[in-house]
Amino acid sequence: MACMDRLTCVVMPYAWGSRRAIAELQGRPAPTSPEAELWMGAHPLAPSTLVRGGAELTLLDCIEADPERELGPASARFGRHLPFLMKILAAEQPLSLQAHPDLAQAKDGFAREDALGIPRSAPHRSYKDASHKPELLAALTPFDALLGFRTPSEIRTLFRSLPAPRLASLEAHLDQPEPLRAIFAHLMHLPADDASALVDEVTRAASAPGSFPRERDLVRRLAALYPGDRGVVTALLLNLVHLEPGDAIFLAARTLHAYLGGTGVEIMASSDNVLRGGLTPKHVDVAELARVLAFEPTAPAVLRAREVDGAPGELVYDAPALEFSLSLLEVDGAITPTRSGPEILFVSDGAVHAGSARLARGDVAYVPASDPPYTLRGRGRVFRAKVGEDPGG
Q: By CB count within 10 A, which of 20, 39, 85, 106 is most buried?
């Protein structure tokens, strides 16, 4: 019989977090300060803990002590390393404009900053590890995000809908050979006073009624939170995406994005590499961000979970990631999922039993690769994180 480990997980208290969402999911009183992310996994920065043999251990220590037992065949691919990290992300305010490097960029940047002697905990360090960070977010509530560059023609149309003369000079950069790179570089290198004047002008223009009402609302909201921040205008270069509960988005490497608000289940390669571009008091490395970004238009695809062949009650979100796979188990009676490696389970609604273990809303469990198949009984919705498919079989 499977012997699931109940996990105790770390809550990250970032300033943009919610004062109720994660607490409500876990059935505890609302905190006095924001709670932004619940980390479920073995990332060294905040590993989850479990109890075995009466002793409290981190999941990181368990995996490093016996990777073959904990990870199974995935240990041959990823070593002593759980390759994914699952989170509950609860954004009451927008996150920074940011992007994540691809694998080659991450390895290069990590080695370079190590060679420069920059402490890995330093606030001005961009590369905390040598991994890339593909990620997927599935909405638990209505969720808004900025994701990837619009086409130059779409940017031009949006700019012309706002009566802001300074946008005309900015728009001229769309006529250059690499329009997205040119307009982004111009924005990021504007002197602070000129950037602030541009933001003020665009904010006034967005305060009048007109076309693109969602973008106008966004400008006003961002400007109120980050007065004079050039990221307010940079946001207009990006696609504005709305998700309903159950919808998801996948974020490839080198894609400029920002989560704007809502609660969701996020899964990613176990990395903390972030390059920021605005809407934040944190470190912004303009040159490195510009080096990493892909300056190509993106047509964001809203993903919906599909039924898994031969697995009634399991719905999977397709994502091109080797490190992770995210599915939703809709338990109404009993489900026995097919096993292939280590898993982390998060109950988002209802309650289920696995043998003698009861998992209620907000509970998190870990299943080692060496455990036999388990059966979930009851009625509930369970998000299931596991390692992605090995293309080599």
A: 85
